[in-house]
Amino acid sequence: MDAKPPLEKDPTLITNQIWSIDGLIDRFNLPFNRFFVFLSLAILLALVLGTVSLKVYDLSDAASLDLSRPGYQKVQTETNQSQDSPTISPVGQIDDKFKSEVESAAAYHRGLVGSNAFSDTPLLDENLIDPQPLSP
Amino acid sequence: MTHRNFGLALVLFLTIGLTTGGLVGAAPVDLAQTYQNIAIDCPGIKTRLKQVKVSDDLTRVNYGQVYELIIKDLFIPANTRLVANRFDAGRLVNLTANFEVRLNSFRADYQKYKLAMNAINDIDCRTKPELFYDKLQEVRTSRQVLRDHVAELDRQTTDYLTEFRLVTQ
Lengths: 136, 169
Prior knowledge:
Chain A is mainly α. Chain A is about 50% helix and about 0% strand. Helix content of chain B is about 90%, strand content about 0%. Chain B contains five helices and no strands. In chain B, helix 2 packs across helix 5, helix 3 runs antiparallel to helix 4 and helix 4 runs antiparallel to helix 5. Classes of the chains: A mainly alpha, B mainly alpha. Chains A and B meet through helix 4, helix 6 and helix 7 of A and helix 2, helix 3, helix 4 and helix 5 of B.
């Protein structure tokens, strides 16, 4: 009875399969099964996407509001809903209609931002540091 | 001569009187009293600061959204349309770029303001009213910077509209 030589893995096959889960296991000699590697990759992808989302959330400073908290339902109603925001088309003629659209869009947006934001009033001594406890 | 001396004396008298009166009338801030008030009403002050913080966070998010919309939905499409129609929109593009730079400064300075607010909230104002008051001055300064940014962004929007009218007239 002839003994068959042990099967050797084709290196080109491994290279071709580098982006498959089996290819990864073979390539790096991972001591895990396919399911474990698949699960690890899924978790890694979720972590990356979660980090990116958190960064975007934090950059907009919406994180400090934490609108997802039930206690901030009142705040949620106070945030601007920008669905009705007027937009200007980047294509078309320069006519009176376009000029009027730009003027009205500017007026709309400026109406949403007041000029007295971050006023010093709430942090003045007389408003923040209450003198009443010392009054007779 | 007598009249001259009298005039000099009068000027001197008025100068000294007004200066002294001004100093007395200015009523220097009684810091000791302020520190005492802070220590006594510490929980109330902290509560009011938290209310200010929530209100400011809301303002920051809302204003940030509006400023982004001004760039995305107004400035950029208007510039694009003007350029496509061979209008000289160079200055408008510059104004848009300046607006964006100012908006980024606003965002960055709001982070500093937020950190200052968080820092002051961590101070025990009952035992360290002096430190609390010092930090409050820093918060006020940071807030002033934000107010300046908002005013400047409003002014730049006005400048854009003025230039837009000039270009399209």
